[in-house]
UniProtKB/TrEMBL annotation:
Keywords linked to the UniProt accession: Aminotransferase, Transferase
Organism field: Aspergillus ellipticus CBS 707.79
GO molecular function: transaminase activity
Parts of the chain that traverse the membrane: none
InterPro entries: Aminotrans_IV, Aminotransferase-like, BCAT-like_C, BCAT-like_N
Name of the protein in its database record: D-aminoacid aminotransferase-like PLP-dependent enzyme
Amino acid sequence: MSGDDFRIISSLRYDPALPAIVGAADFYPDPLRTPYYLLPYHQERLRSAATCFGWDKAITFLKQDLHQFAQFLDSFIPDNTKPWRLRIVMDSTGACDVEVNPTASMDPLSLLTPSQSTSQSNTWRVYIDPERIAPSALTTHKTTTRDFYTAARLRSGITSLLEQAEVLLVNPSGEIMEGSITTPYFRRRDTTRGDNKDWVTPPLSSGGNAGTTRQYALAQGFCTEQVITAADLVDGEECWLSNGVRGFIRGRIVLRGSEDPHT
């Protein structure tokens, strides 16, 4: 696998409202209280990917302390009073670029935890990809090699990142890996606690991405890991999704044939 073929990436949210809401939150994993959502996890994610691919120069760049890393990102922010979507892109030589685009304002509390008050009108349709994807380092780590994600979205009729819709990737064993742009969470009964139901997310052994909001959700006890098969999912069941730009999003499973993907 040549480093000339792809770059490692991590997408995150810059939000000037974030420091105020996490100021009293001891559990939030950013001691600097920066406007960058889960910044330590993004740095760690990039460093883990660089280590996996043996990119020594990238690893050296990513070993800088968190304050230096935040200052580096600050140089790309056009207006620090507005929210932005950042896409950190790094190649095997350690060269790092940051693509910055406007992003919609949102309730910053949605970045910290799933909220039962989330509007039903913002519920995303969640489809299941009918094809199977083989797990690899390119599914575990986020890179610019994303053709298989794009293809899965198109198979479910999702043609724009602006659509409130997601598709779940499935490995050859029929296990849910992840979403094309999100980590999914499902409510399942804990066999050790009777009828209680808890939120679970697929384990990395199923082949999905080691996402930042996934790491945060696990660390905060919002969910545990459990293998979920495509056959387990029920049409209309509620789920949660998350990513580093939008935080936590309510979702609803839509099985093939139960709804036109374009509606």
